[in-house]
Amino acid sequence: xxxxxxxxxxxxxxxxxxxxxxxxxxxxxxxxxxxxxxxxxxxxxxxxxxxxxxxxxxxxxxxxxxxxxxxxxxxxxxxxxxxxxxxxxxxxxxxxxxxxxxxxxxxxxxxxxxxxxxxxxxxxxxxxxxxxxxxxxxxxxxxxxxxxxxxxxxxxxxxxxxxxxxxxxxxxxxxxxxxxxxxxxxxxxxxxxxxxxxxxxxxxxxxxxxxxxxxxxxxxxxxxxxxxxxxxxxxxxxxxxxxxxxxxxxxxxxxxxxxxxxxxxxxxxxxxxxxxxxxxxxxxxxxxxxxxxxxxxxxxxxxxxxxxxxxxxxxxxxxxxxxxxxxxxxxxxxxxxxxxxxxxxxxxxxxxxxxxxxxxxxxxxxxxxxxxxxxxxxxxxxxxxxxxxxxxxxxxxxxxxxxxxxxxxxxxxxxx
Amino acid sequence: xxxxxxxxxxxxxxxxxxxxxxxxxxxxxxxxxxxxxxxxxxxxxxxxxxxxxxxxxxxxxxxxxxxxxxxxxxxxxxxxxxxxx
Lengths: 416, 85
Description:
The complex is a heterodimer of chains A (416) and B (85). Chain A is α/β, with parallel strands linked by helices and 416 residues long.
């Protein structure tokens, strides 16, 4: 069933009795050509592009819970491609280009809203860093505009410009950045993949791998064994655990990142704002809630909930940026488990086990990367070679000394 | 989360700085590149009991080894990283 305004209109006249489930609740078959482990945004996007771009039809996505229950529904919905390093920028820009055409591509309203992402600076050194980043972006074909304090004041008059410690001197704006309704991304990809014959199998946890002569031949699951010639892992914060079932040890630690939303307010914040003196980023959802977040909690965690000290730290950032936020009541907060890599950048690569592929280490850049990650992982699975824009995301880059460390923090996942 | 510092008593975790896995040991200087790669970059990252290093930055400046469950944040034991401290 194709979604359209006409369809919406006719269904309304018929009492909305004609809608069908958006995807089948598939039961596992004994064998597939390719199995994707993890039914989050990245796994579903991978399955979709495998079917759509590379013509594979015999694909299953295995999800231990329900699709959209993990980080795809736990982030702050921001999309952007304002990266500095050559290994990152082309990938995130390709991902942003895919966002721009996503809704037409998958026939699903994901509410992609390019309302702009503004990174503020508060001193000369930060301005210089933003100039450098903006130039690096523009050299690689990404949009970037440097704003001075007056420009920012016109756009966001409610910020605390003359804060004694962190006065706002300007910012780097990426006008094409913005927000997307995150749940709809999972549902939209699931529906589009299902229409191409992909089996989406929920409540099916992978408990082991079948490996013969160094090559994968299938997976063991809570719903029985499934044979597959190719297996792709897209397990977000649980990458280490699943990879360990195949005898692999990854350059990854799992950490919890919290997000927050206030009660619904009238339109206030036009785009995404990030504070430069602490770690705080905020936007306003279409329902009116202020959606914001900050740093990870800082210690390894598989609990999908965070600690109060981080809540305090994030809210202090918000108060320093826009004191009126103190009047808004916090409605909810939640946590997601991130696979923080040793250099803060992701991995899309082969593993030492033939036929087993890894998509991991997204830290907290995972949501914006969803379409690009799916596109490039599908390319790797189908053609057995990395996609050109993801060619730097190799598993062996740590041993080879080619790390991609945007923040220059060294091998400490809790500082990226 | 509260960490029971053996010197200072129970304190909020925000007094401490987390330094990661306490299990990897620095290889000898003549060890292979592979051994150093393993030590610097690879982690077991268990979902369950985890031995980790914390530094009591806003307290006694002791390095501590904390045994904690990464699924529940329940702390099993806290000891000085150096036995004779």
